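Researcher: Here's the sequence for the chain we discussed earlier.
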Amino acid sequence: MKTTILDISALTEDTLRRAQVFCEPDAVDMAIDAMEKIRRAAAVIRTGGLVAFPTETVYGLGADAFNTEAVSKVYAAKGRPSDNPMIVHIARASDLGVLTRTLTPRIVKLADNFWPGPLTMILEKRGAVPDVTTGGLDTVGVRLPDSPAAIELIRLAGTPIAAPSANLSGSPSPTKADHVIADLYGRVDMILAGPDSRIGIESTVVDVTGARAQILRPGVLAAEELAEVLGETVELDPALLRRDRGGEDGRGGAPPRAPGMKYKHYAPAAEMLVVEGNRSRVRDEIIRLKALNEKLGRKVGILLFEEQEYIEAAHGFYAVLRDLDNSDVDLIIAGALSETDGVGFAVMNRMMKSAGYNIVKV
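Model: Thanks. This is the structure I predict for it:
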């Protein structure tokens, strides 16, 4: 398949502000050029093609959410299991009505406070939403992204866009256009090469169909923030607290209710282990394990973020994994983050999955 790459990296919030508020000629020209490229991408979506595009969380691989053939192509391009549901992206909150009949006060509060942004809500779906888009579930995950390029693409396509991360299934999620090109060039119709993802990990996924709201996948929006807005307790799915693979190998069992709940995820090509415990002891153990493995002839990479710099860790996590893979390391040794912080907990969720729950405690 021929893949067209269009550079829209100039389309940032700053460029739009300069163009729309101050009418700066160079900013206006850059915005017009980027918008024309997005119009081309929207035409690809409308005709059943696949477009990779930037969002504030990670890059997504998009198809018309109501086109079963197009959505099936997404699974094929990624090598994604067909029972792994996709998140459907919309351009405005009012588009919820085409995906669900249910509009509760809980949904309205979350949308009013966190959209556009890194929050996905699991909702009861309308019958018109294809089973292939939802992995056979009677619910659908919906998000309104906080990205000018993503919102414009969805608006011009005239349809909600089903979009998992734009990477090969199981590998680290893409936060840069180069990551998408490395994984999907020749597999998709078009790649919109935009700015790096601002947040760097996937959205928080909250199921609002039950008696209590429940987080199925952690993100930078923590349970406490959602609970404060809702005025009610927001639970964590018990699977998030497990320290082993559990049912994530994809053999049998119920279909996952959200992306990232089943199957191997976010994994680098290299073997990876996580060192967990007191910070100073973690550093000492990483040094010891690195020296030991290097004596055995293995090339070792280190992933250790500064203590309490959780936002920075979220932003850089996937990029560091890919950089280490590109340097052909045999082993990645990572230092665990505190899980008492909501963002730290979300990064650790990805880190544990990346390492296959290979943990050394000190």
